[in-house]
Design goal:
The complex is a heterotrimer of chains A (360), B (270) and C (76).
Chain A lengths: L2 E6 H11 L4 E4 L7 H9 L1 H4 L3 E4 L3 H13 L4 E5 L1 H16 L4 E7 L15 H5 L10 E3 L4 H18 L2 E7 H5 L1 E6 L8 H7 L15 E2 L6 H21 L3 E4 L6 E4 L2 H16 L4 E6 L1 E3 L3 H8 L4 E6 L5 H9 L4 E6 L8 H13 L2
Helix pairs in contact in A: 1-2, 1-7, 4-5, 11-14, 12-13
Chain B lengths: L15 E3 L17 H16 L5 E5 L7 H4 L3 E4 L5 H11 L4 E7 H7 L1 H10 L4 E6 L2 E2 L5 E2 L18 H4 L5 H6 L4 E8 L3 H16 L7 E7 L3 H4 L3 H15 L3 E5 L2 E2 L3 H6 L1
Parallel strand pairs in B: 2-3, 2-4, 4-5, 5-9, 8-9
Antiparallel strand pairs in B: 6-7, 8-10, 10-11
Helix pairs in contact in B: 1-8, 4-5
Chain C lengths: L1 E9 L9 H5 L5 E7 L5 E5 L9 H5 L5 E9 L2
Antiparallel strand pairs in C: 1-4, 2-3
The chains are: A alpha/beta (360), B alpha/beta (270), C mainly beta (76).
């Protein structure tokens, strides 16, 4: 069993980064995620593992530092919150285009605009539909606990290197700030220069005599070449859709109705299940863990076994679009959401189930 | 056409005193005829060759005319988003401290959209080299006004000349960053004459040598021509540059070994 | 008595005819050919035997198309 600690979600992200063998963190302060960099600066990972931690002048600089580091094969990450992630979109698009691995963390706060510093899930569209320009996808992981904040750092790095594409942990201000017990994984040593060059033969690490020069770019001015780049990306995404879908079901075996929710909303729905079942309503939960690749087949299958689905999100109805596309029109699928930083309570979720799905 | 004057046959390998370096990829440069970019590309590559650091160098190219610099320089490179080269180079140098890292940027890239990245990389005293090509115009997009466009100078977005009342003043980024404690060597050169090319190459060599001692930013501005954007012949553009650009962007060292050099401009102030 | 002689070879296909080498040559050795290369550029040619191999033309050439030779030869 790994080391147990009581930690904030943001701290768990930072500790997991050090333990995952991360080479560099580049960030800019923004509430509610500033503890990530604060923890790293306090921990001095440059002494523990040699990891670089740098406070950049902006989120624009942070993401481009990631591009630079990732382009040399280094394991790099940043974290921010919604407005900061919006600022990074150009760089994220470049990284997807140049096929660079990196880990991004969005501790979402309410928007639009400066919005609020309270938790929200309103960045779903931005995370899974692209966010920046061009046809690209991110691997999007949605943790629902502080434990998963830690675990998904390692998973996110693994997937991003496996597919040479940026991975995003889509969390929120509540999971970032709340404290829970975490079982930390054992530290993985940072790769040596030789290991890095072996793992990333494409990286710009300095051209030896025995290979061509490596170029990291997202530019191809020839339309045929640029189409090939796009087709390559799409082929990669197709493999991800087939192989990397993660989800969880809770009390879904005998369920007549279903909640579908990710992250914090899924935590709330677990309590709502208990309340509803106490009233005799057989409801279960389907929780997508990878928001991209989205569990399309799994939702299509489970929707055939239930009478109705309530999609619970801390936004005005974003993931419900993907649920409807997956499940089709055979059953009733409605949305319940609070936004602007308000977390729905389990009672109102049950009431929404009764009114919108069962009674509706 | 047959050359009629090559009577003496001295064209033997042992008599070669100058040939294109192999560190330039064997393909035609994409630049306009007479453009200084090609010259600067070549002398950077010659410098790396002379220092034998091809395998230890990582370059960052910008967005602008030199966006394809990585196609011509036979070293590992990364193409940055517009203005962000110093951010890339910061991360690269911090995680590969024994590599020689440089950015190659134009004036729109370095002094407009990338102002924050430029100033903060300089202010943090990152240990890489910045090569800044200043031709006073956005060449690639078709000759628009740049932050460095001279007062009253015409461009496609200042067709009646840059009116400083409404369009602001040209930005002397090099003098500006020389004031920052993180810069160690700051110089302005030009490649319009053979002597200028030799001096610029010396400056570039010094800028790369400084990386061995981790002294902070070494910054080489090269005032360059844009004959297409300026709508002149290459030879005219070099003359115009001397007459118009140099009075505003005077050549010479601005900061050497971490100390500001007293120039005519600074002496006059005191 | 030995004399220093120079010679240049222009990579005709890569020359863009910018004429900067002409301005840089101290002995007016270079001119533009009347012919054009496959890209349509007039290219630099050597028009007399005054070259000393000073390399100015090669140093200034933006496209790096000039190779310079220099040797001591017996005086005529």
């Amino acid at each position: 069993m790994g080391e147990l600690r009581l930690m904030k979600g943001n701290e768990a992200i930072a500790e997991a980064a050090i333990r995952a063998g991360c080479d560099g963190y580049f960030g800019y302060p923004i509430t509610p995620q500033s503890e990530v960099m604060e923890y790293l600066m306090m921990e001095k990972p440059y002494e523990r593992t040699g990891m670089v931690v740098l406070q950049a002048e902006s989120e624009v600089a942070s993401i481009n530092m990631l591009y630079g580091g990732a382009g040399t094969g280094k394991m790099v990450m940043t974290s921010s919150s919604s407005p900061g992630i919006s600022l990074m979109q150009e760089g994220i698009s470049y990284m997807a285009g140049a096929e660079l691995p990196a880990l991004l963390v969005n501790i979402v706060r309410g928007g639009p605009g400066l919005g609020t510093i309270q938790p929200s899930q309103a960045d779903y569209f931005q995370s899974v539909k692209g966010g920046g320009h061009g046809d690209y996808r991110l691997i999007v992981l949605a943790p629902a606990s502080v434990q998963e904040m830690s675990d998904f750092v390692k998973l996110g790095f693994d997937l991003s290197f496996k597919y040479r594409t940026p991975a995003l942990i889509l969390s929120d201000g509540a999971i970032g700030q709340m404290m829970e017990k975490v079982e930390l994984f054992d530290p993985i040593p940072r790769r040596t220069e030789e290991q890095l060059i072996q793992q990333c033969p494409w990286a710009s690490t300095g051209k030896p005599k025995n290979r061509d020069h490596n170029i990291i770019t997202s530019l191809d001015l020839d339309p045929a070449g640029q189409e090939r780049v796009n087709l390559k990306l799409q082929a990669k995404y197709k493999v991800m859709e087939e192989k990397e879908v993660l989800y969880e079901t809770i009390q879904a075996e005998d369920a007549e109705y279903l909640f579908i929710a990710f992250g914090l909303s899924a935590r709330i729905c677990q309590k709502s299940i208990d309340l509803a079942r106490a009233k005799g309503i057989k409801v279960g939960l389907f929780r997508p863990i990878t928001l991209y690749p989205f569990p399309v087949k799994e939702i299509a299958a489970i929707s055939k076994k239930v009478k109705g689905i309530l999609v619970v999100e801390m936004n005005a109805g974003q993931m419900i679009e993907d649920v409807r596309l997956a499940a089709g029109c055979a059953i009733k699928i409605e949305h319940y959401g609070r936004f602007g930083g308000i977390i729905p309570n389990p009672d109102e979720v049950v009431k929404a189930l009764e009114q919108k799905i069962i009674g509706g | 056409m047959v050359e009629q004057f090559a009577k003496l046959d001295i064209r033997k390998d042992e008599n070669i005193v100058y040939k294109r370096t192999d560190l330039l990829v064997d393909r035609p440069l994409s630049y306009c005829p007479g453009c200084g970019h090609g010259t600067v590309h070549r002398i950077i590559m010659e410098t790396l060759e002379e220092m034998s650091i091809q395998d230890k160098t990582i370059g960052v190219s910008p967005v602008g005319c030199s966006v394809l610099a990585y196609d011509f320089m036979n070293i590992d490179m990364l193409g940055a988003a517009h203005g962000r080269a110093p951010a890339l180079a910061t991360a690269i140098k911090r995680m590969w401290p024994d590599r020689f890292v440089f950015t190659y940027q134009g004036d729109g890239d370095l002094a407009a959209i990338g102002t924050a990245e430029t100033i903060h990389a300089c202010n943090r005293g990152e240990h890489f080299t910045m090569i800044f090509i200043n031709n006073g115009i956005y060449g690639m997009t078709g000759g628009q006004m740049a932050p460095t466009t001279l007062p009253n100078m015409r461009s496609s977005t200042s067709p009646y000349g840059r009116d400083v009342e409404t369009m602001g003043f040209p930005l002397k980024m090099t003098e500006l960053i020389a004031q920052l404690p993180g810069t160690y060597y700051v110089t302005r050169q030009a490649v319009h004459t053979p002597a200028g090319v030799r001096k610029t190459k010396k400056a570039i060599r010094k800028a790369f040598e400084n990386q061995k001692n981790k002294t902070g930013i070494s910054f080489v501005e090269v005032v360059s021509n844009c004959n297409s954007g300026w709508k002149m012949t290459p030879v005219q553009s070099n003359k115009w540059m001397e007459e118009n650009m140099f009075p505003f962007y005077p050549l010479g060292d601005i900061k050497v070994d971490g100390k500001l050099v007293e120039t005519k401009a600074t002496a006059a102030k005191e | 008595m030995a004399k220093i002689k120079g010679d240049i070879v222009v990579n005709v296909e890569r020359c863009k005819g910018c004429e900067i080498c002409i301005a840089a040559c101290p002995f007016s050795v270079i001119a533009m050919a009347k012919d054009v290369n496959s890209k349509g550029y007039h290219y630099a040619i050597k028009v007399n035997d005054e070259c000393t191999g000073c390399v100015n033309c090669a140093v200034i050439c933006p496209d790096g198309v000039i190779t310079v030779y220099r040797a001591k030869v017996a005086a005529e």
